[in-house]
Amino acid sequence: MTASTTMSTDEVAERDRAPQWCEWIYRHFGGLQSDLYGDTTFDGHIAASHAGDVILTRLEANRHRVLRTASLARRSDTAYLKIVAPWQGSASVQQQGREARARDGAWVIYDTTAGYEIENPERCDHLIVMVPKDDIGDRQLRFDGVMARQLGGSGISRVALETMRNTYQELPNMSEAAAHGAGELIKQLVRLSLQELSGADTAVTQREALRDRIRTHVQQHLRDPALSVDAVARSLNCSRRHLYNAFAGEGESIAAYIQRMRLQACIRDLQQAGPHARPITEIALSWGFGNLSHFSRVFRDHTGKSPTEFRGS
Questions:
Q1: What is the pLDDT of residues 201-220, one digit of tens each?
Q2: Is-contact 239 230, C-beta < 8 A?
Q3: Of 233, 31, 231, 220, which Cα lies nearest the Cα of 113?
């Protein structure tokens, strides 16, 4: 039987749950900053096991975000490719100028040696799998362009998803030798999934390429108050219809994506305390919000607090 590690806020006083959770996430995943959307109540559970050198973690928690900065990534001792595969809820992964979302039936892969940000905007039940990066890459497989991608819908990546799930669930009944073999199988299936993805040239990957271009343009012009769907279409020399098709199935429109990116930038700036903290109005205007009433309204919808309340929490 393989050993497991469990952590639960059920055993922590309610007032201490949020900081305890942030500490657990930082320690268990090798340096992650956590944000709970400003929520004051929280509960979460972590159960982790090993299949050889593959780490499988089931994470059940209220909504939260995590951030791995580039400096934290550089200080990491072990290089992993990391996978989030939701059973319930959703996860949005941002890395290398790309963003991929997953719900039940899909997984997203990303690289712990580079910065990334993950949003879990609702209560979630996720399987998180960490595979040693050096065991996946080879001369034929390049990771550029395949990180922050959604997989699992069909083909070998679907087989990989079911294998990861089944392995986690059956680990308590496996010997160490069997668990090691299951971990090797997971690594092989992840490798094959990435090889298939990197060699694909289909309408789906073309749509992903356009989506990447849209997101890159938005990030580069986020501070411009004139940034809009029409402005993006003109800059990329394509129709609004092509833009909408590129975002089909993402769960949000391009306009909603622009607004969410601006809100995230404002949240990061509002979290900067001290004598050099900038006024709220200046922050909002600097990230393209021309209407302060609109900014306050959408900020409250996103975080549950006004900008002033968020800064003071």
A1: 544 566 777 887 888 888 88
A2: no
A3: 31
**For residue 206, which amino acid is it?**
Q
* pLDDT over threshold 70, residue 197: yes
Q: Taking the CA atoms of the chain, what radius of gyration do you get in angstroms?
A: 20
Nearest by Cα to 300 from 253, 271, 266: 266
Q: What is the dihedral of CA 82, 98, 34, 88, to 10 degrees?
A: -70
Specify whether the CB–CB gap between 85 and 67 falls below 8 A.
Answer: no
Its sign, for the CA torsion 221, 225, 230, 234, is: negative
Nearest to 66 by CA among 96, 104, 95, 103: 95
CA distance 193 to 80: 16
Three-class SS of residue 127?
Answer: strand
CB 125 within 8 A of CB 57: no
Average pLDDT over residues 283-296: 93
For the chain, list the domains and their CATH numbers: 4-198 (2.60.120.10), 203-312 (1.10.10.60)
Beta bridge partners of 67: 33, 117
φ and ψ at 41, to 5 degrees? -115, 145
Residues 6+ apart with CB under 8 A from 19: none
Kind and range of the H or E run holding 292: helix 292-303
Choose among 213, 194, 217, 204: nearest CA to 248: 204
Tell me how far apart the alpha carbons of residues 136 and 199 are, in angstroms, rounded to a whole number. 16
Distance CA 225, CA 223 (A): 6
**Environment class of residue 165 by beta-carbon count within 10 Å: exposed (0-12), middle (13-18) or buried (19+)?**
middle
